[in-house]
Amino acid sequence: MEVILYSALAIAVAALLILMIYMVILLVNTKKTMEEVLKTLGKIDHQVKGVAGEATEVVEKSKGLVDDLTHKSSQLDGLIQGAKGIGDTVEDFNKSLQQLSNIISKHSKEDQEKAAQAVKWGASIFEYWNKRKTNSN
């Protein structure tokens, strides 16, 4: 019975020794894996910092572009208002020309009537003069 006890004890010790060897191998492999994970995380961290820096630059450039566009838009607003003012002035000028044309046309018609009357009077006077002249001879 002692032999069985010693045999069982030897098997248990061998099993524990094999288990310990596998545990050491597992821990060594785990350590290597963790070191690789650490390296990978370091690379990722470096890349994330680079991307974050580039993103910050893009945001700053975007802000600059937005400010520039806002400034140029306000300048265009002034230009558009100026063009509108010119358009209003041209429209007023056209109205004034139309009114002047209407006035001239109206006075021209009145003057035509006066000229026609003057021609009629002139013709009448000339006719009267001719009749007198023929009667006197």
Task: Summarize the topology.
Blueprint: H1 2-136
Characterization of the model:
The chain is mainly α. The protein is built from one helix and no strands. The chain has a domain at 1-94. It is 99% helix and 0% strand. The model has no long low-confidence stretch (mean pLDDT 86).
Short description:
With 137 residues, the chain is an all-alpha fold.
Secondary structure: helix percent: over 70%
For the terminal residues, how far apart are their CA atoms?
192 Å
Report the portion of residues in β strands.
Answer: under 5%
Number of extended strands: 0
Radius of gyration: 57 Å
> What is the count of DSSP helices, taking H or I runs of 4+ residues?
1
Low-confidence stretches: none
Give the topology string: H per helix, E per strand. Answer: H
Multimerization status: single chain
| Overall SS class | mainly alpha
- Overall pLDDT score: 86
Largest sheet: none
Query: What is the overall shape?
Result: rod-shaped
